[in-house]
Design brief:
The protein is α/β, with parallel strands linked by helices. It is built from twelve helices and eight strands.
Length: about 250
């Protein structure tokens, strides 16, 4: 049985006050028999968020794959584990596009989570050009295979994948439930090829791209969509809580 996860990526947004507001609201919700909710604050707020979080998990938005050393400005997997992070987002399209992270670097980061307590959320997704040109399946296959390329079949079972079409991120355009389901099925089939059926049926595959309270339930009801990676809507307390409730409703069915 795979987890249904609602992950809130705050990106470079928020403040100490927002950490307090979001965590105190989430702490009122009992997620114990339900979905997993995870928040991803900017790194300076991680420790504080972890101290406050009672019902949700906390994750980091990025890290560097080396264990330690002269890498000014970077954080390692063991440092994040040390303060209590449980997830890390890797290969986000903003990291790929703005910070020039390629598939090789993403693969090194994914493998560097092994031995830490971090679950990597490997993000993949096509651009508008790839979608309109019809080559999106190849793009997704390349990113999934590359991102998992340094892992054994057994190690792949620790990974969560997020399908995030670049054209839907922060644009207000959402992939239709059928468009998203098609790619999620493709991802699950690829994982079956790489790691076997048992790993693929147990892997959570999240959808990301303008998820909000109005569209979450329909998206998360698709057979291969196991929750969402939420950007903009995770910065509004009520909206994020409503997305978590929508996910919890899907689980009850
Ligand atoms: C994201 O950044 O991962 C994301 C999905 O953003 P948004 O929900 O704002 O589209």
């Amino acid at each position: 049985m795979r987890d249904l996860i609602v992950a809130g990526n705050w990106k470079m947004n928020g403040s100490q006050q927002f950490v307090d507001e979001m965590l105190s609201a989430l702490n009122q919700v009992d997620f114990s028999e339900s979905i997993k909710a995870v928040v991803f604050p900017p790194s300076v707020y991680l420790y504080e968020a972890i101290q406050q979080a009672k019902t949700v998990k906390v994750g980091a938005q990025n890290f560097f794959h080396e264990k330690s050393g002269a890498y000014t400005g970077e954080l390692s997997a063991s440092m994040l584990s040390d303060v209590g992070c449980e997830y890390v987002i890797l290969g986000h399209s903003e990291r790929r596009a703005i910070f020039c992270e390629d598939d090789n670097l993403v693969a090194k980061k994914v493998v560097a989570t092994l031995g830490s307590r971090l679950t990597p959320i490997l993000c993949v997704g096509e651009t508008l050009e790839d979608r309109e040109g019809g080559g999106y399946s190849d793009v997704i296959a390349t990113q999934v295979k590359a991102g998992l390329s340094l892992l054994s079949a057994d190690q792949i079972s620790n990974v969560v994948i997020a399908y995030e079409p670049v054209w839907a991120i922060g644009t207000g355009k959402t992939a239709s439930p059928l468009q998203a389901q098609e790619v999620h099925k493709l991802i699950r089939d690829l994982v079956t090829e790489l790691a076997g059926k048992e790993v693929s049926v147990n892997m959570s595959v999240l959808y990301g791209g303008s998820v909000n309270a109005a569209n979450a339930q329909e998206l998360f009801s698709q057979p291969d969509i196991d929750g969402g990676l939420v950007g903009g809507a995770s910065l509004k307390v009520d909206e994020f809580l409503a997305i978590c409730s929508a996910a919890a409703e899907v689980l009850k069915r």
